[in-house]
Amino acid sequence: MDSETFSKLYRIAYPRLVVIAAALVQDRNEACDVVQQSALVAIEKIEQFSASHECNLEMEFARWMAAIVRNVAANVRRKQRVRRAQSLDENSATTERNLRQSTSAKHEEIGFDQNTRTFLGINEAFDDQLRCALESLSEISHICLLLNVVLHLTLDEIGLLLEIPPGTAASHVSRAKKSLRDRLHDYRGPAT
Amino acid sequence: MSFSTPPGPPDENTGGDVEDKLLEAKIAERLNEWYAPPPLHERELLALHQRYQEKTKDGVNPQGLAGATRSYFGRRVIGLALAASVLVAYFGLQLLPNPEAEVVFNRQNLAAVYDDLVARGFQPYYLCDDMARFRDTMQHRHGQAITLSDRGNQLMLGLSYPGGWTPETTAILFRFEGRPVVIFVDDQPPPKDTPRPADESEISKQLNLRVKNISKIYLVEVSPLTESLLDTILPAGNAP
């Protein structure tokens, strides 16, 4: 593959790769770094890429890159966890106490029952809950959900990209959506 | 956008309930806000393109590379080297648009740049076969959207950023009657002494240099042909 082809395929695959990385590292900027790092890994390993003709070259390349992105993102996540664990070890008692106070204060401020929806801060509470709900999803469900909702990929496309059957992709998307709906049940309705 | 709009089998719990639909719409809105990928930066693509070319030019032995990546130490070394190259490329490119970088930027002889592009195979850094994207790139880089009229015997290969009379000069690479032609574009006027063939180059002795101005931008064509391509470049919206 020449460099022009690589650039072209990378450009096409880029949005999918960023979304996959973002699902794993939970941060869009960090996801962009992960994708860039993955591209460098891909360049070094380009000899290992071979299109199997099961699908088109663009999809083959995206699938190959997606696997690299998931590996790089997994390493980044491991480092994130280590950093968090070290940070907690150093300040565990203080952090826990502060966190409890802050959470309690936040709950008092914004409330969680039906009557507090019009309070300032409800959007923040919704976002917090949504983030918690997303973190509770499995990695693969999270990825499938975002590819489906953010990029509008079909279940066939998700299946090809992640090397899973379309039925499995459908199942992940469906469960993820249900899980989010259930976790955010208190926020149903037009009031925000 | 609705949470359940994307194609696929219907979810068992999405039908009928307006409140659920509103909740889904709000979730989808947040997910898009948080996760919609930003556009790929041209400079990132350029850095990768260069890295790819360097790797290909180095003639890295795939077997040797695979062997090196097998060991933990080898992986660390490669990782550090890659990280360093990214940082150098990133910060190097960050400096380009900074006016302070003018101090260290050496204005280049356009014929020498032409020779160098030809010697490197006359391959653009950025393949640009989409005219809308070409127009937007020119608008973004130089504040003037331009487009190309098709003469039938010219082929626009893409864009390169080899520098010119400023670090921001863009080079449009053409094949015209089978010969390489470069049109340099910038929003700064070219110095009068810059467009002059390099005496030491055999190729450059046969080059013609022509200058044209379109609205806010300046074009300098470097071509071995007597016929010019400058007339094919038009302000966007005026193309036939």
Task: Describe the fold and architecture.
With 192 residues, chain A is mainly alpha-helical. Chain A contains 7 helices and no strands. Chain A is globular, with a radius of gyration of 20 Å. The N and C termini of chain A lie far apart (52 Å). Chain B is an alpha+beta fold. Chain B contains 6 helices and 8 strands, in the order αααααβαβββββββ. Chain B has helices at residues 18-35, 42-58, 62-70, 72-95, 110-119, 131-142; strands at residues 126-127, 146-148, 154-160, 170-176, 179-186, 208-214, 217-223, 233-235. In chain B, the strands form 2 sheets. Chain B has a 6-stranded antiparallel β-sheet. A two-stranded antiparallel sheet of chain B has the order 2-8. In chain B, strand 6 (208-214) and strand 7 form a beta hairpin. Chain B starts with 17 loop residues before the first helix and ends in a 5-residue tail after the last strand. Mean pLDDT of chain B is 73; it is low at 4-15, 60-71 and 97-104.
List the helices and strands and how they pair.
The complex is a heterodimer of chains A (192) and B (240).
Chain A: H1 3-25, H2 28-44, H3 57-110, H4 122-136, H5 139-149, H6 155-162, H7 166-183
Helix pairs in contact in A: 1-2, 1-3, 1-5, 2-3, 3-6, 4-7, 5-7, 6-7
Chain B: H1 18-35, H2 42-58, H3 62-70, H4 72-95, H5 110-119, E1 126-127, H6 131-142, E2 146-148, E3 154-160, E4 170-176, E5 179-186, E6 208-214, E7 217-223, E8 233-235
Antiparallel strand pairs in B: 1-3, 2-8, 3-4, 4-5, 5-7, 6-7
Helix pairs in contact in B: 2-4, 3-4
Uncertain segments of chain A are 106-120
Strand/helix succession of chain A:
HHHHHHH
User: Span from first to last CA of chain A?
Assistant: 52 Å
> Can you count the beta strands of chain B?
8
Outline type of chain B: globular
As an assembly, this protein is heterodimer
Number of helices of chain A: 7
Which sheet architecture does the biggest sheet of chain B show? 6 strands, antiparallel
Strand fraction of chain B: 15-25%
Show the largest interface: A-B, 53 and 52 residues
Order of helices and strands of chain B: HHHHHEHEEEEEEE
Cα(first) to Cα(last) distance of chain B is 38 Å
The biggest sheet of chain A, with number of strands, parallel, antiparallel or mixed sense and barrel status, is: none
Helicity range of chain B: 25-40%
What is the SS-derived class of chain B? Answer: alpha+beta
According to DSSP, the number of beta strands of chain A is 0
Query: Rough shape of chain A?
Result: globular
